[in-house]
Write a structure and sequence with these properties.
Blueprint lengths: L1 E3 H11 L4 E4 L6 H7 L5 E4 L3 H15 L3 E5 L3 H4 L2 H9 L4 E7 L22 H6 L4 E4 L6 H12 L7 E6 H4 L2 E3 L19 H13 L3 E5 L1 H5 L3 H11 L3 E3 L14 E4 L7 H8 L3 E5 L20 E6 L13 E4 L2 H15 L9 H15 L9 H13 L5 E4 L3 H6 L7 E4 L9 H9 L6 E6 H7 L3 H6 L4 E7 L4 H10 L14 H8 L2 E5 L17 E7 L13
Parallel strand pairs: 2-3, 2-4, 4-5, 5-7, 6-7, 9-10, 9-12, 10-11, 12-13, 13-14, 15-16, 15-17, 17-18, 18-20, 19-20
Antiparallel strand pairs: 1-8
């Protein structure tokens, strides 16, 4: 049966498992939008194309499936760039469908043309460095191969964004719909058996260690290895710290959790690593700038290092390993756990992590080296309130990062999604809205006022589609990190960091959403009046403009 390309594309998305697509229509993409009219895929009108792509990424992060967005040609496509780059950095399976001017006007200066002909914008070149696959589909004869490649990249073990640009006239051409039967829509698993020698060597090194430490990276979450990680940690009494992106790989309220490792953390894990650990087992962590303490060469000095990752580019990228294992983390941890049981490996000496953390905190207080002083007590109290309020877990997208990294203990029931990747301000709200199309638990977007200004209108997307959302907005009328650096490194020569905020109570009223303002810990009971599961709430938390976290990023 022959169908227009526009309809085949929608059926392609349906077979990929796409249930929701985010975007903004334009004349060059209307044939595809018309095909969406009769599709079970839910279409969500965003306020900006960047927001649409962030929404697609947010949905992909929470479901593990393919996120989708759709835009018109020209600015519709170029507005996607930052969010597509973020999906690329975070290895998210996001597909973007964009329109294009008709092929017969290529090179003639047509409205919003992006073919690269005749001096027009070259969209293929624009997306080349931030996608796993991108094609301008000028003819239908190779459409099957394009869709095969798109599905392969979206469904692989190491996915990334795909951008397909379709000229207006090509969208209306007829093709045989059976071409979809040539495409494999099953998720591809690149899992390979673990060489027994790797498990033997790992056991030998762990057995010889007095105080091993596990550094859990995002690979532990990505491979679904939390339970195996928990079993190994508990069987052998091995403390666990995580990278920021892996918060929740082990329940951070458990007695063996050291919290998050990194330059913006409180330092418990770093002190344990430096002073106590003699072996470090790094699981799916890449030792980026934050986790490596700005690539400090002394961080692992004198330690035995086992590093396991499915990506060879991550192995020994920063620190030389005594044992480097390329493997699927799920398979590796299952095999290691089984071997530990078979050999009845003796647990390590008990370590009182709570006492260690308390001692580290006391030493930091005495030396004036704690990352947060009393000016942040109400922020600390807010996160403690969230822990008590949601014992069954919540979903949090976090632009601010530094507060939650230190104050929020992610449980096994929570899902925490920090703004990593390219760390674009304004990510949390649209990403959370995308997730809200699937998530049934209380949903939070944590953001500073600078980032909020970049995405505020997307709140109306949540309003329009009745997507429950709780926005925690930290209000200090400044770009906090910039002001902090200009204070610490540039002798208070402040420039382009401070600004005037609107009246957020009136803003919330105009949006038709609830507003609550918190200035002290004593005001936290006001939050009890909010419905976190069914309403859209803007929770404004006041922070002193001259209160700075005490850490240095060396820049």
């Amino acid at each position: 049966m022959e169908l227009p390309v526009s309809e085949v594309l929608i059926k392609f998305l349906e077979r990929l498992g796409v249930q929701c697509i985010f975007g903004i229509p334009g004349s060059h993409i209307l044939p595809v939008y018309d095909a969406l009219h009769d599709s079970p895929i839910r279409s969500v009108l965003a306020k900006h194309e960047q927001g649409a792509a962030f929404m697609a990424g947010g949905l992909a992060r929470t479901t593990g499936g393919v996120g989708a967005c759709i835009t018109t040609a020209g600015p519709g496509a170029t507005n996607l760039v930052t969010a597509i780059a973020s999906a690329y950095a975070d290895h998210l399976p996001v597909i973007a469908i964009t329109g294009e001017a008709p092929t017969h006007i290529f090179g003639k200066g047509g409205l919003q043309e992006s073919s690269g002909e005749g001096g027009s914008v070259d969209q293929v070149a624009l997306f080349a460095g931030i996608t796993r696959y991108h094609r301008l589909i000028e003819r239908t004869d190779y459409l099957p191969n394009v869709l095969i490649q798109a599905a392969k990249h979206l469904l692989s073990d190491t996915p990334g964004p795909v951008v397909l640009s379709i000229p207006y006239n090509v969208q209306k051409e007829q093709v045989d719909a059976s071409l979809l039967d040539r495409i494999t829509f099953a998720r591809r698993r690149g899992e390979r058996p673990i060489a027994g020698s790797y498990i033997e060597q790992s056991l030998g090194l762990i057995s010889a260690a007095r105080r091993p430490l596990i550094v859990a990276g995002h690979g532990c979450l990505r491979s679904g290895s939390q339970e195996a990680l928990r079993r190994i940690s508990q069987r052998l009494n091995i403390p666990v710290t995580s990278s920021l992106k892996a918060k929740g790989a082990i329940d951070e309220r458990s007695p063996l959790s050291l919290g998050s490792l990194g330059v913006t953390s409180g330092g418990y894990a770093m002190r344990y690593l430096r002073q106590e650990a003699d072996l470090v087992l790094v699981l799916g962590a890449g030792f980026n700038e934050r986790t490596s303490y700005v690539w400090d060469p002394t961080l692992l000095a004198g330690k035995t290092l086992i590093q396991v990752d499915n990506n060879t580019q991550q192995l020994e990228k920063v620190f030389r390993a005594d044992l480097a294992v390329q493997a699927d983390l799920g398979a590796y941890l299952q095999a290691l756990d089984a071997a530990i049981q078979d050999r009845q490996l003796a647990p390590k000496e008990h370590v009182d992590i709570a006492a260690f953390i308390a001692d580290t905190q006391a030493q930091g207080d005495a030396a004036g080296e704690t990352i947060f002083n009393h000016q942040f007590d109400h922020v600390r109290a807010l996160y403690a309130w969230l822990e008590r309020k949601f014992p069954d877990g919540l979903v949090m997208f976090d632009d601010n990062i530094v507060f939650a990294q230190n104050f929020y203990r992610v449980s096994a029931k929570d899902r925490f999604y920090p703004n990593t990747g390219i760390s674009s301000l304004g990510h949390a709200i649209p990403a959370a809205i995308g997730a809200g199309c699937d998530v049934k638990r209380p949903l939070f977007a944590v953001i500073g006022d600078g980032g909020f200004h970049m995405c505020a209108m997307e709140l109306m997307t949540a309003v329009n589609y009745r997507i429950p959302l709780n926005v925690v907005l930290f209000n200090n009328s400044t770009m906090g990190l910039i002001r902090k650096n200009q204070h610490h490194l540039y002798q208070d020569r402040f420039i382009d960091c401070d600004f005037t905020n609107p009246d957020y109570a009136l803003l919330a009223q105009s949006f038709g959403i609830r507003h609550c303002r918190i200035e002290s810990a004593q005001q936290l009971p006001k939050l009890d009046a909010l419905d976190f599961s069914r309403d859209i709430n803007l929770i404004e938390v006041m922070v002193d403009q001259d209160a700075y976290p005490n850490y240095s990023s060396r820049r």
